[in-house]
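notes to self, project folder thing:

trying the whole complex as one job this time. last attempt i did each chain seperately and stitching them together was a nightmare. two parts in total, labels are on each line so i dont mix them up again. if this works i'll redo the older ones the same way
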Amino acid sequence: MTQTSDVTVAAEPRAEERRKKKPALSEGARAERRLGWLLCAPAVIVMIAVTAYPIGYAVYLSLERYDLRFPDQAKFIGLSNYAAVLTSQFWWQALLVTVIITVISVAIELVLGMLLALLMHRTLFGRGTVRTAVLIPYGIVTVVAAFSWQFAWTPDKGYLAAMLPEGAAPLTGQVSAILLIILAEVWKTTPFMALLLMAGLALVPDDLLKAAQVDGAGPWQRLTRIILPMMKPAILVALLFRTLDAFRVFDNIYILTQGSNGTGSVSMLGYDNLFKAFNLGIGSAISVLIFIAVALIAYLFITLFGAAAPGSEDSR
Amino acid sequence: MTATVETRPAPPAPARSRGGGMSDGQKKTWWAVADLVVILYALVPVLWILSLSFKTADTVTDGNFFPRAWTWENYAQIFQIGIFTPALVNSIGISLISTVIAVVIGTMAAYAIARLDFPGKKLLVGISLLIAMFPQISLVSPLFDIFRGIGIFDTWLGLILPYITFALPLAIYTLSAFFREIPWELEKAAKMDGATPLQAFRSVIVPLAAPGVFTTAILVFIFCWNDFLFAISLTSTSRSQTATVAIANFTGASQFAEPTGSIAAAAVLLTVPIIVFVLFFQRRIVAGLTSGAVKG
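result (full assembly):
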């Protein structure tokens, strides 16, 4: 009894194997296809239901006058919400702050991340300890880290504020607060950048570096002529992901400054519009604009720099 | 490159190695200093919040890095506040459920990507990539309205759904990278040796796949545990408010004159499980984080 059932079940994968080699025989290929779709269906359905449908709904909401305090007066008003957002200085200021935070933090993270990756790759001892230490900023909750920085920079309370001249309150000035937000972002995400870069670094063959050294190439030449060009794909992927991630900055700003004194990002603006101004129409217009901005950044990265999407190899 | 090397006589350069003119001892010292800088970089903000959590109410504003007077009072207090305990339960429950579902669904999809041949595979990879880059704030306004409409605003489900969605790309990439490394022929070999398919799967494939699945689960859990934006937007009461939101709310609506100690203590409690995970599974986490990303 058991024997027979075993035989039939065992026969299946073998048949599948045989058919895979000859795609013309379509029954097995069709079964494989069906299994593939079946296995992917839950993931695809969840991802689309929770993102594509709401973003479509956001587009619809953004064309309405919809104040949560007066839901009965909801009315189609075309592009007025967009006009309102795009002519508002709050939007442009938030966008500028977001771009500044994104560009500066990603630039610093790239340099520091590269140094950290070289260190983790090359260090003579304590490699495991360094790698473990570096994972702590990655693993720690952003809100927790943000509080640590906030307390540290609060006058009379923090060890860092204590090192500043008397009366300095760095979290209340626009420029200094933005710098501190950048610092918090950099601290938290440099290790992640470093790990991605380290994986790219592992792909650079040691022999090649030794050969270059024998040829008389100094450390700087080896870095700029060999290591960096060979790591280009890894660098671009890391940059793309971190840029888009930094563009969404929210947690650090919420805790450090609440967006006061002109330090709010576009994410803060969208949040405030919904939960402080209760304006779902304007809030949705901001949502759609941020979505477009992110799509634009990704498009530019992929076309200008030829950043290969990670996983594109999977599909081959 | 190698050709040039062979044709040239070796210059004196290779005799002194990487660190220029430094001796071995000097080089070691420099690496040790660099290691130390990195470790301090990672630990100082954590030690600071730990130190704050042990400071007494009188000394919490003294600006010292280390506490002068130690107390457990802050830890006792956060459990008396009333909003923290349910928030911690919510955080643990929501993160665990989201992790399990995301890993199960992700494993299915990753298996299909790694082993099966079917049209639409590229599309799936593309969708995952798009979602990995998706600005979460763009979903907050519409989800807020939709969830209120269907009655899952301020429920566990209302957070689990977005968490699964944004964890899936991470799960699918990491798992499919792991699955591609598994020598699947071993399964066939085991069957030829007389193992039943179930036996072959259980004793050959499961042990090989388990580390990857486990690593993915850790990464997904960290992701859910860390979320703040969805949690603060899609919840309103202790019914589903997570710990990150509860901590942020200590500041505004506190019964204490000085909530710093309470926030610090709660922050430490949120951090400890992650740090324990990281210390135990450092190697796997590094492998998991890098596997999905560099293949491009």
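what i see at first glance: Chain A has two domains: 2-62, 89-304.
need to look closer tmrw
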